[in-house]
Q: What sequence folds into this?
């Protein structure tokens, strides 16, 4: 009874105040924060193609609210592809306007947080995605996320391989990890000529990839104290104090990049890693270095890796162990060039599906590949992709042991040309693949 009397008194008091004073009712009664905060984009949009920076705004329609400022982590962003969440979504949140310990959200003072969801930052393949944006603050966890439809449509270019180097320069074939750290990508860097090729190779690996390649620019390899060789073996003295000597999943790839780059130097076939000048069983837990490492030289199909700015060819080695002849190896490699890696949308086929390999001939280290006429029509409106396809063919089929020259035929005839290449004589693979700069 007493409780009812108190509630009735409060109602009468509120009614009296609302009649006699110009005070809004919602100033007296508690309104949950989740009902007074709203999200929006500036400028307002619900769909966008190839976004770069997105401005996410939080404002209140009533009571001000203060939330804790956690630089770089004020927002939570989710992405969905055909209803399936994208795992480990990468994005960059820049500091909110307020640099204080707390952020004040007010009606006349919206909080704007800038976030980078560009394709290069997220690493997402071309396609359509649904994004959901919301605050991570506990006070705002009940607010409905803001949704945005995002389309990514990349337009990468291909830089044709070269058969020459600039005057007084030399080309170093370096290997850097792909943006998703799944593959090693060969890149050519031209530097002033220097007789210490091995030392310069390690130094340039340690500088990371040039931004022009759009590969990761952060150096992956551990610090190296000394480089020398004995016969066909390169000795790499790794600094034991290097912060990169941890088994973080990328160290093996980093060491393998050294091996592949070093064995590109004429006469070098293997790499022996040393720790402060001494041979050790393991350079890091689980990574054996007692014996020299050699690069994998099995036949490779050179596929296209899409960095969204550029196509970069890289060697992918399908299983050719069951191939009894060179002809069998050629057909396995050719099918790989046509299919790419369907499980990885960033790795694309380089030969159109309607191109067929009709026959294969091998004589005196020359491999003849006979195609159907569809080869001559491949990418007829895109010279960049034509160059890429030719580079892929020459690098792929010359990766077979004992193959020196490649001759292309169409229905058995060599009286054709394609993308500046004449088929009337055998071709050799170019010296410098994936030049860093155009």
A:
């Amino acid at each position: 009874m007493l409780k009812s009397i108190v509630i009735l008194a409060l109602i009468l008091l509120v009614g009296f105040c609302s009649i006699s004073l110009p005070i809004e009712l919602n100033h007296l009664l508690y309104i949950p924060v989740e009902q007074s905060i709203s999200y929006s984009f500036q400028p307002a949009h619900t769909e966008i193609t190839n976004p770069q920076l997105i401005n996410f705004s939080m404002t209140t329609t009533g009571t001000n609210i203060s939330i804790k400022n956690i630089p770089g982590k004020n927002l939570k962003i989710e992405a969905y592809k055909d209803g399936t969440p994208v795992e480990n979504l990468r994005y960059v949140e820049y500091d909110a306007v307020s640099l204080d310990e707390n952020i004040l959200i007010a009606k006349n003072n919206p909080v704007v947080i800038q976030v980078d969801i560009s394709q290069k930052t997220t690493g997402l393949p071309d396609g359509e995605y649904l994004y959901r944006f919301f605050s991570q603050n506990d006070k705002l966890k009940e607010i409905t996320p803001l949704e945005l439809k995002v389309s990514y449509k990349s337009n990468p270019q291909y830089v044709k391989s070269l058969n020459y180097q600039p005057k007084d320069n030399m080309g170093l074939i370096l290997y850097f990890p792909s943006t998703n750290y799944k593959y090693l990508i060969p890149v050519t860097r031209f530097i002033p000529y220097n007789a210490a090729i091995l030392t310069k190779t390690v130094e340039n690996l340690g500088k990371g990839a040039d931004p022009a390649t759009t590969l990761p620019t952060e150096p992956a390899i551990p610090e190296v104290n000394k480089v020398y060789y004995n016969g066909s073996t390169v000795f790499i003295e790794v600094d034991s104090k290097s912060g990169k000597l941890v088994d973080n999943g990328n160290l093996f790839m980093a060491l393998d990049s050294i091996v592949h780059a070093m064995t590109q130097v004429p006469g070098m076939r293997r790499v022996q890693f040393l720790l402060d000048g001494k041979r050790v069983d393991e350079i890091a837990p689980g990574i054996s270095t007692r014996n020299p490492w050699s690069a994998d030289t099995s036949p490779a199909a050179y596929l296209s890796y899409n960095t969204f700015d550029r196509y970069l060819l890289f060697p992918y080695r399908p299983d050719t162990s069951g191939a009894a002849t060179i002809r069998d190896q050629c057909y396995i490699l050719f099918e790989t060039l046509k299919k790419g890696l369907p499980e990885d949308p960033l790795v694309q086929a380089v030969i159109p599906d309607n191109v067929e390999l009709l026959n294969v001939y091998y004589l005196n280290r020359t491999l003849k590949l006979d195609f159907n006429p569809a080869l001559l029509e491949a990418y007829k409106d895109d010279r960049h992709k034509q160059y890429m396809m030719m580079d892929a063919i020459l690098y792929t089929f010359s990766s077979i042991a004992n193959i020196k020259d490649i001759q292309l035929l169409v229905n058995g005839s060599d009286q054709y040309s394609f993308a500046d290449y004449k088929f009337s004589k055998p071709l050799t693979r170019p010296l410098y693949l994936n030049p860093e700069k155009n």
Summary: Confidence is low (pLDDT under 50) at residues 1-31. The first helix runs from residue 2 to 20. DSSP finds seven helices and 28 strands in the chain. The CA atoms of residues 298 and 400 lie 7 Å apart.
